[in-house]
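#struct-queue
[09:14] JT: dropping the first one here, sequence first, then the structure tokens:
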Amino acid sequence: MTRWSPALFAALSLAACTTPQAGPVVGPAPVTGRLERPIPYPVTPPAGHQRAVDRGTRTPTGAPGARYWQNRADYAIRARVLPAQKRLEGSQVITYTNNSPDALAQLHVDLTMNHHAPGVVRNEPAEVTGGVTLTRVAVGGQALSAGGTQGARYVVNGTRMVITPAAPVQPGATARIEVDWGFTVPKEGAGGRMGWDADNLFFFAYWYPAMAVYDDVVGWHPDPFRGTAEFYADFGSYDITVEAPAQWVVFGTGALQNPQEVLAPAVLARYRAGIQSDTVVHVLTEADFGRATQPGQAGVLTWRFRADSVRDAAFSVTRESNWDATRTSVGDRDGDGRADHAAIHAFWRPSAPRWRHVARYEQHSIRFLSGYTGVPYPWPHMTAVEGQGIVGGGMEYPMMTLIGGYTAQGDSALYAVTAHELAHMWVPMIVNVDERRYSWMDEGMTTFHEAQARRDTFPGTTPELEDRASYLGTARAGAEGEIMRRSDFHYTSAAFGTASYPKPGTVFATLRGLLGEQTFNRAWTTFHNRWKFKHPYPWDFFNTVEEVAGEDLDWFWRTWFYETWTLDHAVASVTETDRGATIVVEDRGLAPMPARVTITRQDGGTQTVEVPVEEWLSGRKSATLTLPPGGGSPIVRVEIDAENVFPDVDRQNNVWTRP
């Protein structure tokens, strides 16, 4: 990352003048004694990221390096759903490929369902169901013993299992890990991200032992799941087999491999029609409940799903849900000049009638965000499952989302949460960020994407201003935490929520206002395309924006991501004589930003001038604009940020009007 050195601009550019005239100037001279304000110091990436740059896996410009690598985990899982017992049991083989330059003496595995084991450290209450029972762990065909300090073994500590194989996994080698497991399904598991409801719906997420991430910046990620901050995983393939009783419909991450073996003939026909239709087809309605599937073998059906290039997998099991299907355009995935499509599915129970619109909401969200991000949706389907009684808002998984009923909240709220959860398909499901440490990359980018989708769907609405108001409410109360604070270690839920969702969403809109829409959009899509199916860190984003914009923005990153400084520009005074006018602009906050000043004269003429950010970065808290005479027309109004682009905590002092 480049370094900032302060420079004083002696003259300001003049825009939209009614008549040609000399530009205003700003004064007085730079502060030479004690500074009046803190000056944001340069952003220094942590040692791990700097080492990655030195080793060539990352670059100072924000792009992946020539030596970039990431490990891979491929899963073959067989699971059995036992609805009456509220249990899931399974066995799996993980083929783990070590693409790193390091020999791995240990292998780390996440056991997220141990969030429900007794005595586990949590940030919030959780139902105790006993956690995961492991009945077999093997590496390379060798069964391992639990515990101990010598030889091949495994140790479980909370939500993490650490395996010590008989020999380290060498660079370029693979390890075959076999695990047999089972657990009692919590009602609202993993912090309301999976579970069951009303004896007619199960949703399984974070349900299988999953490889933790070993990357080029941190190595093995040691952070456990505490219930608040979310997840981080490598990409891989999934071959999933789910055994469930007949008349329970299973749908999940990946392409359904055997629809003809599991769906009743009439349902199968509607399913096939729906995924090729631009209008919604009702695959299942209440009239089909109890006769949706084939009878199965001894009353049990086997459903098979396959997925590639995903970082996780989830599935739903339901016996009394409507099923709507359609398709949506995602743009040109393969460069052949023709639009490609993804199937859209919505599963919802009659108790959630607003969900009759969700398939259409999904259509729009996937189509719009494929264009906005510059990354076409890459997978065969996107499926939304209504999960009232499990989740209040929504939660995302590759190709799947679980969302509450939203019966009381209204249709616009249901669209907003649908757009939000589907926007997560880009971050973190494609642009694979570490949610557990940097929730703002996941939730903040998604909040920003949601706002763009909402504006497109409901022209004239102001979702970005809603996010800004939410952030400013916390900021005015002095209750926010830094965006870059580790996600699990905010002091309050309000601080975590603000730093993860509305503040970063607001900051991205602020960055767009600073750079201009064209430059911002180019930086935004460049970042998404550089880091699709890879693991970016915050400094990769910062550096990408700086490279595209051609600007050093350390002052911006430090101000908005590392501090809780607020912006408060004010028109302190306006004085006008026959020799011209002086306007004093004060910066009463700590967040340095350009002050864009719009001056309106009595004859209707306007001009906009800017106090550049360098004025505040020089250590001052006030700047004086000196304007030449206005040709006989006095100034009647002065306003800072008339376009309402920046998150000023007190807009009342942004305006001066002639008494």
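[09:21] JT: and here's the second one, same format:
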Amino acid sequence: MVEKAVDLLTEAEAREELSRLAKAISAANTAYHTLDAPEISDADYDALKQRNAAIEAQFPGLKRPDSPSDRVGGAVAEGFGKVPHRQRMLSLENAFAAEDVTDFDERVRKFLGYLGILDYTAEPKIDGLSLSLRYEGGVLVQAATRGDGEVGENVTENARTIADIPQRMTGAPAVLEVRGEVYMSHADFAALNARQAASGDKTFANPRNAAAGSLRQLDARITAARPLRFFAYSWGELSDPLAPTQFEAIRRLDAMGFQTNPLTVRCSGPGEMLAHYRHIEAQRATLGYDIDGVVYKVNDLALQTRLGFRSSTPRWAIAHKFPAELAWTELLGIDIQVGRTGALSPVARLRPVTVGGVVVSNATLHNEDYIAGRDRRGQPIRGGKDIRVGDLVQVYRAGDVIPKVADVDLSRRKEGAQVYVFPSECPECGSPAHREEGDSVRRCTGGLICPAQAVERLKHFVSRAAFDIEGLGAKQVEMFFNDPALPIRTPAEIFTLAARDATNPLQKLKNREGFGDTSAAKLFTAIEARRTIQLDRLIFSLGIRHVGEVAASLLARHYTSWDAFESAITHASPGTPEWAELNSISGVGEVMAQSLVDAFQNPAERQAIDALVAQLTVQPVQARGRVDSPVAGLTVVFTGTLEKMTRAEAKARAEALGAKVAGSVSAKTDLLVAGPGAGSKAKDAERLGVRMIDEDAWLQLIGAA
């Protein structure tokens, strides 16, 4: 199939694509985890997951209840008892490039507030079947597959037949749940397939299929006849800690009698992690068993606890996958797409080529610097080689959501190939396209006069996380935008559609192609139902640059009502109390604040906003979190050095208790929590009469001392 870049999808296309991806990923999970008969490669599976995640990030309101992002593994197969996992068996976030590993380390250190070099463990990622082993009093009492992460299959009797799995042990905690991977060596796999073929039985496609199929035999005697192995690499429920670090805990499992991978090492920082990745990759063909990457984990288990988990992955671990297929093809042209914020995005139009089993005809070129062979700081990339129409270019996917152009073959560059000149005018409306200092993107300055921006902003306005008007999707937006009789070119015109239709006897909507009496009436009803809208949805729907769904929620929870929000943004400018308050909101910086102010002070933008709000009833938004806590409803500022938790942890805990966390002190601040090194914020609090307490008093106040 030919994949369209995520940032070029309309909402309707995104919804359809998420539906397709959900089905494809579910089928792949069933084939891989339940039937032990995978139908696609790991790289293709990773690409599906990554594309699904990117579309959800681009269109957060379209995230499905059955989103693959929230699921791990597949359903429990019939024929096995169900085993609820006391602690979920999660999947891992994937990395595909060295930059992803560096970003992972930076995210971990930022969350922890850690300035030094962190220690990690690095180990081969075994391509097998995940298994959980529960020991009580040193005796194996239960074995379960991962299943969907919440519930697995009871394969206890089968697991007892695997020589690498101890039945009894000494020196173990009273309760010990060991997790690891069941696999089959290359030599044992070849011998098994030879026996299967000789007896006329089914042969297996690869060692992973053979291992999974062998472990999940309803007759344990068949499993016993198969040469299965087991590597231990983690644990679940424990009555007592194994050790203070990941590496020491793995060594203790080894001392108890489990097989652990000898290529597991400690690494200090990304440099050593990547060096070990290359070391393992070089040995991959000679290991005698299948691996598909390297797993990095924060070594300090106390830090793992602080980092915690996302919905389906831990923050303290990542799987660095080995690269997938590359392909070379001709660059036929460079198209410029204009987004709702005016961003000019270059897209490579390619001679169709198969990359990792998928036909690719488009790929992202990122921005004008990338085409020119430099990064935004002017430093060379690809050895400084630029990209020109007609070049032979290398395309890769490797699990990436959007195919990318990685390299250029200068030896095959056509004579006379012209340096690509990035447009300085919008290809849609002809307005100047400017590039702000520090920005890697050139943007059309036409605003709402640019048809491309206007259409994309209307599509954003009716998206799932914004107004979510049933029957008014991307396709209908484009139709109405170009309709001379019943046009919709601004959000407010959506809410005047029924009235205009009623006074237009000659070209009523019900008589248009694709509509009838029922569908037209349903659309008018759906629009009417959205006249009442929550504040956070309204703010997000405006499509203001830098203001995404999360930021809109932050702003709505702070100001609570449209009147308060509108008044604050209207009067905000550097040096005013409104500007100081806006910038004090945790998560709002000067760039976002200026973007909001610019939108409200732009005459055309403001006219469109006022016309829209005049059609609406805007519901206030209440602050989240507990309403019965001692800090519920208070505006809290943290300053100085927090010694018992990170700033991210303190903020998360305060918000969970119903407090608002601000980034600076103002007259509306209720409480300043000051650690050592508190400076100007403490002086501001003293000047304004704001109550100040230290970290210990804060912990006592919230009941965490």
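[09:30] RK: nice, looked through the second one.
[09:31] RK: The longest helix spans residues 11-34.
[09:31] JT: good to know. The two ends are 57 Å apart (CA to CA).
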